């Protein structure tokens, strides 16, 4: 269990409130939330619109488009397409916009544990 | 179009029992060897619960798919589409779209802040003891509902294979499955279980793929003709339209919405899925594994559409309903129709292994939750205050004992839940998870002001209302297909409680917080927020 003990100590030495108030962390937080919140609202609205249509607009959903394939089936399959698309979009956004800044902050804090200079001075070392 | 539909003679199945059982026994033997080999390095609690955090993203993603694609997805959804047509497809869509909640809002943040269980995250910046106990109780409840569904699936499958339709025979089958599962988890821990999930996921997806191509080939790779075939056999054109099952009355329409809500919000709150995010070394690997599993799960659910309508067209709803195992037997009957006893043997072995593996995953989650959250952090901590190495050893010992107890409870529960559609039973577990866990997960990750009182109100309120509404619903009493058909205390009309209990739990979490004058520790809140987004101080992989 040596690993666990070490990590807890390392985390305890960090002034998280100071890190939280840095501009860079606020930027990371903003970037994360400005992507995941609107996206979550969008796909939930699209999903519930689909559920409500299947529930209360049976005639519309049953309209045949091509052979036996109706609008309901097409909209259902589009739910699959949108899920795959949002997944890809989020991964590319994280790789470009979130990961670099997150690992920068992490390395700075964790690098701190190994130099023996007492007080962490995160945020001033920009 | 005069496509010949030879009837599947269910009685023929008995002749192939030996072959089915042989293939199944071979699978169990192979996985057992793997489990024993994988368990050699089980030294610490991190090894036992989180597989030493040593799996890669794709490996873990396949294991997540293995955990998630339970008997409900394979037997349950195929059966639901074969009998109820388009309304069964709703399960596929809900189960998949739900992964976006996990991917966007939960997976990485959880990996960065937690250690072994869901309660680690929920209690991070709130009062440890009460929140941990609440989270452990809801974990045990969700796992129990999920286990019921898997056990019901095992009963259906084996009663079909062996032609056992009497209560005692099926109960015996469930006892055997339960005993096997206890052995897996006791010996293998998380690492062994993860390997079983990976193998099983690949076999399940491969088996479903073969059947899908086979069905499509029969219809010249024309989906429209396949749908036409389903309409022809069922003599019911509304097979292809929404509403066959849920469109009858205003109440059933509400029930459909309730199901939709539970499905989409349940996944990100399932404790055994959340625990899978800890078996990878970093948050980035957690993200990779979710992406990997979304692709695998999505493709699998596209297969279920073909399999469901394929079973409707080639086997026919009446034959399925009349077979032992009922609606859950659609997929095995379709396999028998396509490839005879050999394919049936393979598909049944895979389905059986699916149940075994999912049950193992659920059991280890419940055991970890009890041993880590209730025993180590509440009972033992109160006793000797310390957290030394000896405690970690005892914790694993307690977890192993919990496995035995949960195994026995699941066996008893499974005997009583036998005969219900598995996808439907799992949807109840989703509703309980979404009500009891999701509000607190989301609030504690994203709402700075959130307090212990809010968490407790939301968790107990959500859990209590969901379970109470299920108990008072037509699922338990009042109709011919209820668990207790003789009694009638079904005063709640919906069969899925999600529409009421999920919004209620969110409301209670908010209300409990705004009425709470006590503020939580802002330092802890800062730590949680920084750690969740950056991964500072996250648990690392264990190297041996």
- Low-pLDDT segments of chain B: 1-6, 385-390
Helix count from the secondary structure assignment of chain A? 5
User: How many strands in all of chain B?
Assistant: 0
Q: What order do the strands of the largest sheet of chain A run in, or round the barrel if closed?
A: 1-2
Report mean pLDDT of chain B, rounded to a whole number. 83
Count of folded domains of chain A: 1
Number of helices of chain B: 20
Overall 3D shape of chain B: globular
Low-confidence stretches of chain A: 1-9, 114-126
Total domain units of chain B: 1
In the CATH hierarchy, what is the class of chain B?
Answer: Mainly Alpha
Largest sheet of chain A: 2 strands, antiparallel
Can you identify the CATH superfamily of chain B? Answer: Sodium/glucose cotransporter
* Alpha-beta content class of chain A: mainly alpha
Descriptive notes:
The complex is a heterodimer of chains A (126) and B (544). Chain A has five helices and two strands; from the N terminus they run H-H-H-H-E-E-H. With 126 residues, chain A is mainly alpha-helical. In chain A, strands 1-2 form a two-stranded antiparallel sheet. The longest helix of chain A has 44 residues, at 71-114. Chain A is elongated and about 65 Å long. Chain A has helices at residues 2-12, 16-21, 23-56, 58-61, 71-114; strands spanning 64-66, 69-70. Chain B is 74% helix and 0% strand. Chain B has 20 helices and no strands. Chain B is mainly alpha-helical. Chain B has a single domain, classed as Sodium/glucose cotransporter (Up-down Bundle).
Keywords for this structure?
heterodimer, A: about 130 residues, mainly alpha, two-stranded antiparallel sheet, elongated, B: about 550 residues, Sodium/glucose cotransporter, 20 helices, globular, disordered N terminus
What's the topology here?
The complex is a heterodimer of chains A (126) and B (544).
Chain A: H1 2-12, H2 16-21, H3 23-56, H4 58-61, E1 64-66, E2 69-70, H5 71-114
Antiparallel strand pairs in A: 1-2
Chain B: H1 17-38, H2 45-50, H3 57-68, H4 71-84, H5 86-113, H6 118-122, H7 128-162, H8 167-218, H9 223-234, H10 250-266, H11 271-276, H12 283-314, H13 317-322, H14 330-384, H15 389-417, H16 422-436, H17 438-446, H18 452-471, H19 498-514, H20 522-534
């Amino acid at each position: 269990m040596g690993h666990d003990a070490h990590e807890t100590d390392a985390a305890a030495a960090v002034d998280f409130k100071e890190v939280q108030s840095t501009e860079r962390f606020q930027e990371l937080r903003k970037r994360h939330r400005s992507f995941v919140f609107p996206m979550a609202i969008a796909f939930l609205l699209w999903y519930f619109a689909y559920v409500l249509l299947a529930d209360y607009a049976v005639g519309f959903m049953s309209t045949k488009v091509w052979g036996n394939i109706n609008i309901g089936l097409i909209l259902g399959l589009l739910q699959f397409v949108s899920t795959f698309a949002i997944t890809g979009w989020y991964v590319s956004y994280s790789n470009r916009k979130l990961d670099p800044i997150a690992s920068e902050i992490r390395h700075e804090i964790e690098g701190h544990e190994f130099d023996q200079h007492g007080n962490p001075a995160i945020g001033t070392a920009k | 179009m005069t496509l010949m539909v030879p009837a599947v003679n269910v009685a023929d199945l008995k002749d192939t029992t030996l072959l089915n059982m042989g293939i199944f026994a071979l699978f169990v033997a192979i996985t057992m060897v793997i489990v024993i080999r994988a368990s050699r390095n089980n030294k610490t609690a991190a090894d036992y619960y989180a597989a030493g955090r040593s799996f890669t993203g794709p490996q873990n993603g396949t294991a997540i798919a293995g955990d998630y694609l339970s008997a409900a997805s394979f037997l349950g959804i195929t059966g639901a589409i074969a009998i109820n047509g388009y309304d069964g497809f709703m399960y596929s869509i809900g189960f998949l779209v739900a992964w976006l909640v996990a991917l966007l809002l939960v997976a990485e943040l959880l990996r960065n802040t937690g250690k072994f269980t869901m309660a680690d995250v929920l209690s991070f910046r709130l009062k440890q003891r009460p929140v941990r106990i609440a989270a452990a109780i809801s974990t045990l409840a969700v796992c129990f509902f999920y286990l019921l569904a898997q056990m019901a699936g095992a009963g259906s499958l084996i009663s079909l294979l062996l032609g056992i339709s009497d209560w005692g025979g099926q109960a015996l089958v469930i006892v055997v499955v339960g005993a096997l599962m206890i052995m897996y988890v006791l010996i293998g821990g998380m690492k062994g279980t993860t390997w079983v999930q990976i193998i099983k996921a690949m076999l399940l997806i491969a088996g479903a793929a073969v059947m899908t191509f086979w069905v499509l080939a029969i219809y010249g790779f024309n989906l429209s003709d396949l749908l036409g075939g389903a309409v022809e056999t069922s003599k019911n054109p509304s097979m292809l339209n929404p509403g066959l099952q849920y469109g009858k009355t205003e109440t059933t329409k509400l029930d459909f919405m309730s199901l939709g809500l539970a499905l989409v919000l349940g996944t990100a709150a399932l404790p055994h899925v959340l625990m899978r995010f800890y078996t990878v070394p970093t948050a980035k690997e957690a993200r990779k594994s979710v992406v990997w599993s979304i692709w695998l799960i999505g493709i699998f659910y596209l297969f279920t559409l073909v399999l469901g309508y394929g079973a409707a067209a080639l086997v026919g709803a009446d034959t399925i309903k009349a077979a032992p195992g009922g609606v859950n037997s659609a997929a095995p009957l379709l396999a028998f129709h396509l490839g005879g006893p050999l394919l049936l043997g393979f598909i049944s072995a895979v389905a059986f292994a699916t149940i075994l593996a999912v049950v193992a995953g659920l059991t280890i989650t419940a055991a970890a939750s009890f041993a880590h959250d209730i025993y180590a952090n509440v009972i033992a901590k109160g006793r000797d205050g310390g957290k030394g190495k000896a405690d970690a050893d005892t914790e694993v010992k307690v977890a192993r004992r919990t496995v035995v107890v949960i195994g026995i409870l699941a066996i008893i529960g499974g005997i009583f839940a036998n005969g219900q559609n598995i996808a439907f039973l799992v949807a109840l577990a989703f509703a309980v998870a979404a009500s009891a866990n999701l509000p607190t997960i989301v609030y504690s990750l994203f709402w700075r002001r959130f307090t212990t009182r809010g968490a407790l109100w939301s968790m107990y309120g959500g859990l209590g209302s969901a379970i109470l509404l299920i108990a008072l619903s037509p699922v338990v009493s009042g109709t011919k297909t209820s668990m207790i058909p003789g009694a009638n205390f079904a005063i709640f009309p919906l069969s899925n409680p999600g529409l009421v209990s999920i919004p209620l739990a969110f409301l209670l979490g908010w209300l409990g917080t705004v009425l709470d004058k006590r503020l939580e520790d802002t330092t802890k809140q800062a730590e949680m927020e920084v750690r969740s987004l950056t991964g500072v101080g996250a648990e690392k992989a264990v190297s041996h």
